Amino acid sequence: MTQLDLILQRNRRALARQISQLEDEPLEAREILRQLYPYTGRAYVIGLTGAPGTGKSTLVNALAKAYRALAKSIAIISVDPTSPFSGGAILGDRIRLNDLAGDPNIFMRSMATRGNLGGLARATADVVKLFDAAGFEVIIIETVGVGQAEVEIVSLAHSVVVVEAPGLGDEVQAIKAGLLEIADIFVVNKADREGVPRTVAALEMMLQANLNRAARVIQSANGLSHLLPSVEQNSIAPWQPPICQTIATTSTGIDTLLSALIAHQTYQQLHGLRHQRERHRLIYEMEQLLKEQLWTNFMSQVPPAQLHDLVTQVTTRQLDPYTAVERLTFRP
Amino acid sequence: MNDNQSKIKNKIRVLVAKPGLDGHDRGAKVVAQALRDGGMEVIYTGIRQTPDMIAEAALQEDVDVVGLSILSGAHLTLIPKIMARLQDNGLTDVLVVVGGIIPPEDIPILQQAGVSAVFGPGTSTQDIIKFIQDNVKQS
To answer: Does the distance separating the beta carbons of A91 and B44 come in below 8 Å?
Structure first.
């Protein structure tokens, strides 16, 4: 039996080994990704993000249980940070997953960022493809505990849930750009704590001011999308991100969150937005691959002696870095 | 970087788990942090893990090493069960190490069951890191 067959049959050992290859040997793993690609595009991908300590892991556990009650198969990817000093990592999200142990329709994998910024690991998108091809119906991605700028999850998830907890910031935090802009659904977790009305009010105020938001796509200044004809913007009522209050430790409010996710999924399907989002996501992915490829090609052609020479000249102020790079890229 | 480290191409992934019912997880946490500082990816599952949970986590996380911390005295019951579950999951080349309170006369029994090393109180974390780096089998 081939590795592809094993993956399509959801063999757990094969999936686990394949993820390691996606993480450790991205180039060698390209062949299996090529084979898997035709089987992808079926899973519903949910991203959970938010500051550290807001209860993301516990919420993932509660949400996974709720989807299991709907007889959906679930894959979970939890991302935790790699230490920039030692290269090691503590991946502690399984602690919260104990209730789900032994269920063959759940697969969970912890990933370390390994230096990737943006809240995910470099291989997270590939692992999503793997789970998707293996037939998991719902894929939940939990990002690292993020600040305000780690919004890579938008390019990967169909629905983004931003998790807040009461007492973490004032109203000004709520109107900053970044994390809060990417939410399709807000969760105010730990709703049994003090300060919930204040947090909810701050989010509501921000949402009111945000009524005319365009489709939330990461804008790269000179990206591939600029070369493509612009997609016609649907003149449909914009999605209003609901604010769900939950107490994840007791599964309180999880039904509301589940309803909100299903509503968002339906809204996207109804208006063809899922297709549109998929297209944006793939443009973004191709852009990343293209950059990687061009970089690799370029670096294989740079004579180290010339590079060394130019760096020396820049260091001694005989040459400015702009001219140096121009000389490096100019091939007569 | 010494010879041994340069031979290891991939990140070493270690599952640190506490099987059984004792809740004293300080030692496990200290070891987990030390392994992280040693450059390893540590999947920490916490206390009260059953043999099934440990074997399933080791499978899904594709770990190279399973580190078990037991202070309850139930090691002779729990560890052979865990080894059997790991076997069932096809994880035959995973390095299993044990830490905690293990009477010296029990160590050969655990080794017979497939445990590679037993680290008692007072073991330096550097020794644990070194042992793992020297003995891990990576495919």
So the answer is: yes
- Assigned domain for B65 exists: yes
ipTM for the assembly: 0.89
Helix (H) or strand (E) holding B6: helix B3-7
Model-level pTM? 0.88
Instruction: Tell me whether residue B49 is in a domain.
Output: yes
Q: What end-to-end distance do the CA atoms of chain A give, in Å?
A: 51
Phi, psi of A26 (to 5 degrees): -55, -35
We report the CATH number of the domain holding residue B53 as 3.40.50.280
Judge: A102–B53 Cβ closer than 8 Å, yes or no: yes
Q: Chain A contacts of B37, Cβ < 8 Å?
A: 83, 85-86, 88
Chain B nearest CA to A26, separation (Å)? 12
CB atoms within 10 A of CB A92: 19
Inter-chain CB proximity A98 and B53 less than 8 Å:
yes
Confidence of residue B4 (pLDDT cuts 50, 70, 90): very low
Number of domains in chain B: 1
Contact B43 A110 (CB under 8 A): yes
How high is the mean pLDDT of chain A? Answer: 87
Interchain contact, B53 vs A112, CB within 8 Å? no
Q: Does B45 fall in a domain? A: yes
Residue B20's domain comprises: 13-133
Using the Cβ of B101 and the Cβ atoms of chain A, whether some distance falls under 8 Å is answered with: no
- Is B4 inside a domain boundary? no
In the three-class reduction of DSSP (H, G, I as helix; E, B as strand; rest coil), residue A160 is classed as strand
> How many H helices and E strands in chain B?
6, 5
Tens of pLDDT, residue by residue over B14-70, are: 999 999 888 888 889 999 999 999 999 999 998 889 999 999 999 999 999 999 999
Q: Are B44 and A13 a contacting pair at CB < 8 A? A: no
Residues of chain B numbered 52-71 and touching chain A (CB < 8 Å): 52-53, 56-57, 59-62
Quick one: chain B helix, strand, coil %, rounded to 5?
A: 45, 20, 35
Amino acid code (one letter) for A217: V
